[in-house]
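Bumping with the actual sequence this time:
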Amino acid sequence: MEADMDEDRLTIYGVALSSRLLAGTAQYPSPAILSCAIAAAKVEVATVSLRRESGGGRAGKNFWELIRELGVRVLPNTAGCRSVKEAVTTAEMAREVFGTPWIKLEVIGEEDSLQPDVFGLVEAASILAREGFQVFPYTTEDLVAAERLLAAGCEVLMPWGSPIGSGRGLNNPYALRSLRAHFPNVPIIVDAGIGAPSHAAAAMEMGFDAVLSNTAIARAGDPAKMARAFALAVEAGRIGYRAGLMHARDMAAPSTPVIGRAFSDFARA
């Protein structure tokens, strides 16, 4: 089984990954706890917000050094950006800082839910793809938006499970399943709203390729243990999906066949 899992790698923009759990780096109580969580989950990709970290208490060179010491592939993001221009500028700055063409593209369109602005997202993705970026678009389950993003040059999709930081899990399983079915060969990473390991397992059982979690791990009582729990849940969900899940039924189906069962007069007593 271990050898089988080694062969089941996720490839995104030509990079093969063994771990299908991606982690955010915000909101951890301390840099040391962040490091322990990343190590416990054996995460290979971590997201970093240039805007947030530059303006927070961990700003500057020390934070960049910490990220490099984690030994992970950095996925910078444009968190907090609310316009195409702002997102593109932030992405360009992030490429200079981190030296990577990878960018998790966020263009927020609604304040209460932090729902992505899919129109601005497609426009920004087109610009960045032409500039040589490898874009990871944070989007909704909208099939038309997904088509446009792929046409713009994106090779991966990152639909939300539910609003950022809500912990509500998979709010719209039907739409998520439809997205997965419409794009069977596109890497799709479920992002945002994943509040428990069971949510991550459910996403993987649907056939999604990976899960990104931040708040649920960072704000746990023991982030390192929670990170490990998420990693195991993602692995279990993936194995279950590949093994072939049983289909749900409305009525009972006996697990023990009645034909040929033992019969005795004692059963009548």
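The tokens above came from a reply further down the thread. The chain has eleven helices and ten strands.
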